[in-house]
Each structure stands twice: as C-alpha cells, then as structure tokens.
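seq:
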Amino acid sequence: MLLALVAALLPMLAATVLTAPAAAARELVGESGRESARDAAVPAAALTEVTNFGTNPSNLRMYVYVPESVTPNPAVVVAVHWCTGSGPDMYNGTEYDTLADQYGFIVLYPSVTRSSKCFDVSSPQALRRGGGSDPVGIKSMIDWVTRTYDADTGRVFATGVSSGAMMTNVLLGVYPDVFAAGAAFSGVPFACFATTDGSEWNSNCSGGTLTRTPKEWGDLVRGAYPGYTGPRPRMQIWHGTEDDVLRYPNFGEQIKQWTNVHGVSQTPTATDTPQSGWTRTRYGGTGDRASVEAISLQGVGHNLYAHGMASRVLTFFGLDGSGPAPQPQPGACKVTSTVNAWTTGLTASVTLTNTGTTTVNGWKLGFTLPAGQTVTGGWGATYAPSSGSVTATNVSYNGTIAPGASVSIGYQASHGGNSAAPAAFTLNGTACKAG
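struct:
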C-alpha cells in the first residue's frame, strides 16, 4: 500500500522535475540567540537550506524562502511535501514562494530523509506534543525563523499535500498553540494513520473504512496535548471524490473531527460552488475565516493540487491583504445578545467580549438574522447587508478590544413574526461562545 501511494504521486513529482526551475540553495549553520540568528539570516529570494536549526530527532532537512519584500514581524507558512517528494520539490511544485514575494511572508519547506520520503504521521511519538519525530523538528524550524526574523507567532500556518496534508493535521493537533490555521490537500484526520507496530501504513484509514464519531475524533486531537484549553487552529480541507489512495470518506471524517474540536455544528453555515465541480462548505462561520472550510472536488483523484489553489489557501489564512488581517485567537471570544420586540420591530443589544490573551485590533462580527428580519439602523458598528448573513464592522472608536474587555453594540430591525436573536456569532470568521 505504501508503494501504491508512492506510485500515485510519481506523476506529480515528474511534472515538477520537468517544469519547475532548479532551486538555488546554500547551507547555513543556525545559532541560538536573537542577535547571532540575525547574523545568519538567509539570502533573500532564494531557496536556502539551514542546518543545526535546533532539536531534530528524525533528521529532517530545513529549507526556507525569504522574499526580498519580507514584512516586519512576518507571517510564516510551513509547506509540507508529499511522499517521494522533498522540500525543494514542494518549493518548485507550488506557488507559495511567488505569493510570498507579493505578500511578504516567509515559507518553510521541511524535507524528509527517511527512505520512504513520507512524513511520520503514525507513530506514538509523532502523535503527542513533544513526543519526538517529525513534529518536533518542524517546530524547531519555526522557532529558528521566529528568532531570526522576529516572525509573528500569532500568524504561523501549515499546508501540505497527501503525506504533507496528513502532517498538517498532525501539526495542528500537537501544536494548537503554535498554528493559527492549516490547509490539507488529500489528507486524513489526526491519528487516523496511527500504528503501534512501526509500520508507516494504515490500510483501514487509507481505504476510508476507519470511521469514528465526531467526539471520538475530537478526543484524539485533545489527547495530543492534555490539559490544553486555549484556542484551536482553523482548518481548510480539500479532497477529490475519486481519490484512490486516501479514499474520499476521509474528507468527511476530517470535517467531523475539526468541527468537534472547535465546538461547532456539523451542519454547514454556508455552501457554495466557487468553481465548476467544486462544493465548498463552511462551519462555525460564513466568511473566509470560518472555523472549518471544506472543498470537495467532483471526479478528481488523489493528485488534486493545481495552480491557483494556494491563493485560496492564503485567503483562508488571511494573508492575501495589504498587511496583517485582524487575527483574534480562534474561539477566544464570547457574545451575549438580548432582544426587545414589538409587533413588527425589535432592538437587539449585543456584547462582544475578548476572552483571549491578545488584543483584537479591528473586528468584524458575523451573524445570521432569522428569516423576515431586516436591519433598519444600528449603533457601535456598521451593518451590511441588512438581512441574511450580516457583518457588523467596528467603528473608529471601538476597534481595539483588550484581553478581558468588552464592546457593546446594537441594531434595530423589522420582523415578520420571528423576533429571535441570532443563534451564533463569529469574530473575524471564527466562532464565538454564545451566552
């Protein structure tokens, strides 16, 4: 079965070798300490290998791309390759480097040295925080970049293809305090590939016959870092319906897992078709920053990644704007709302509380009005559109919410008989606790 995965990915690797330019690389020795790390900064606009970057139990190799236009306190995107691939292959086969040139973030490309060229997503060591194996080495790479470039620790992201998609799920599970979001192309849920006999392959998982309840999947993620109660990374999931290597049921199992981790409903809050043959569902929010976003590609096989998809990943990450987008901690918010109604109208009072540990700078509060309600006026925010899925955007005097602080807003609306308050709220696309 492992050979089957390798065989399935050889066309992608071959295409990469034939069409992509050769990577320019230089080896550097990373050192501890902020000043010495700055002295060892890598050349701009060139894929560069960094050695001695920190604890590395599975002998991974580290490649990094820093654009000439790198921003102060840049975001970091960890781009994880497929089986048979490498960090330079991921660099050549995707457009994250050119997008980094445009938006100023840094890209990390971990690279496997074991013979299978697959990431360890199955061993007990890989599936617990600090347990060893590949996640520890990747975390060391992130730490190196953070020291060297004063990277924004609140804007670290992971994305990967196939084995890299499985590792994306693993990274978000074992390091929820490190990653803000992830995007997995043709992957499986966290711990789906778990084995105890040293094997790298789990046929039940790859075949799509390993199913669990949402809570069982969520408990596996929570068990990777016992006692952790902080925010969880958002997840974007991509899968083709004709995947014959990591079968399509794994798409639904990932949705079950990450909606449970975020404590949001498995019923989509929004469904659309961004491209012919694609079905996109969002959970815990209706916008680009929903807690979970899932894209199903009809009739597409395992090698689904195509040019242009990375831009959609950046939109989900919030990295495709001019400067940092508002980045609250996922789930680190609470909303209470009360309604006073009369025959044909109502007023609603809404209190938004920042329950996280970092300041929110700029906010958009999303909610869906019950059918028949239309906003006719408001205070403390601007409201658009007036019905359906509404976004309340901060005004100049209340855009900053310190940890533990609250902001109160409200609106007046007409109704056709249903005067209920919205059932759920999102802060910058992330679901808030209600009540």
